[in-house]
Amino acid sequence: MAAEGATDDEVSGFVRSVYTLLRVCDAEIAGWSHDGLQVVIFDPARFASELCPKFFRHRTFQSFTRLLNMYQFHRVPSAQRDSKHVVFAHPNFQRTREDLLPLIQRKSSSACRAPDCGVCQ
Predict the structure, then answer these.
(1) Which residues form the HSF-type DNA-binding domain (predicted)?
(2) pLDDT by 10s per residue, the chain, length 121
(3) Do β-strands 30-32 and 74-75 pair in parallel, antiparallel, or remain unpaired?
(4) Whole-prediction pTM
(5) How far apart are CA 33 and CA 26, in angstroms?
(6) Distance between CA atoms of 52 and 50, rounded to whole angstroms?
(7) Which of 18, 49, 74, 109 ranks highest by number of CB atoms within 10 Å?
């Protein structure tokens, strides 16, 4: 259950899964940055093969990245970090602020650049 009054119903299943994954996964595969403000994927290949099947309906790192983008996470450019790892950030996704998770919402269909695509509707 989410902290400070936020119920699991208010938090997206995907967002909840990522938060849980970071708590329980092998620190050699993924974890939080030192300040707790970024998600760090240390080994994308192992992340895809070992963690994606357990926590998500897909098995590829590309699909995981696509979902993060749908929830408005942003990839941190390699110039701002250690380029050996893949790093994502969202202002409301923080290690010690589980109460912010309900604020992370999937992009609305109006954000779709191709309204006739059929996926966003």
Answers:
(1) 10-107
(2) 444 545 566 899 999 999 999 999 999 999 999 999 999 999 999 999 999 999 999 889 999 999 999 999 999 987 666 678 999 999 999 999 999 999 999 988 665 555 554 444 4
(3) unpaired
(4) 0.78
(5) 14
(6) 6
(7) 18
Residues in the chain: 121
d(CA 89, CA 67): 13
Tell me the three state secondary structure of residue 33.
coil
Q: Which pLDDT does position 78 carry in this prediction?
A: 77
DSSP assignment string, 4-59 = TT--GGGS-HHHHHHHHHHHHS-TTTEEE-TTSSEEEES-HHHIIIIIHHHHSS--
